[in-house]
Request: fold
Amino acid sequence: MPNDANKRYDAVFAGGGVRAIAYVGALEVLEAWGYTFRRCIGTSAGAMIAALVTAGYKASELRSILMRFDFASLRDSAPEDIVPAFGPLLSLLKDHGIYKGARLQEWLGGLLEARGVRTFADLRDETGEYRLRAVTADIARGRLVVLPDDLHYYGHNPDAFSPALAVRMSAALPFFFEPVALKPRKAPFAEAVFVDGGVALNFPFDLCRSAGLPVLGFRVAGPDTERPRNVRGPIAYASALMETLLGARDRMTAESPQVITITVPNRKATDFDLSAGQKKRLMACGRTAVVDWLAARAKD
Reply:
């Protein structure tokens, strides 16, 4: 294994839905080898992992948290969902998402608060820089947004903004979760509408290259990512479209030696009905990928 004198990194976590559980296994191995992370940036589920890491959670704690958590609870219903058969359709028409997404923010907010993190002010490092950044997209303006950096554009104070809300904005998967509306406090005053950052940049590796420390990126990919997809029918078409949006740009940076690609079983990002065994297998994929990465570095 490598004798890496500098094991302090900035980390980038790509989106991937429930497949991001694999990052925990990767972090377990890296922590055992003495690697630490100062600043983290992530998209969607990657932003969730980044938030917990910057709040001080160790990989063993993340394992325990995610093993206990019922991901199915993230499918929180809106009032109109009580209407048999037509509830999800009504949610899509009314709120542009089948599920509210409030449960994600509530759960993550509780975990962050347990570590004394309520606003981004609690996540400044010794230089005054924010340790956490989350990527989202404002579809009302067609722009990539990095939180908390870009909050000034909307007239909001980053120090007073909730990291849990930022992650919720980053993880608002179109049509699945409701988008997050934010009223700007300066011109242009038109309401901002935020959706999953993967629509704009699922793997924000380039955004971290000038931060000072070396960068280590984490992304997940299926074993047959390149296999042609079925695009017949509206659901299959929408699914293929989202997979392309989320994954095409990722593969452009995947060959970097500073990127750890974790091959996971073919699983949808929204496959929330995971068994304990399935969660463990995802974490095992992360451990295997890092062991292979360390071994490759040892040969260099």
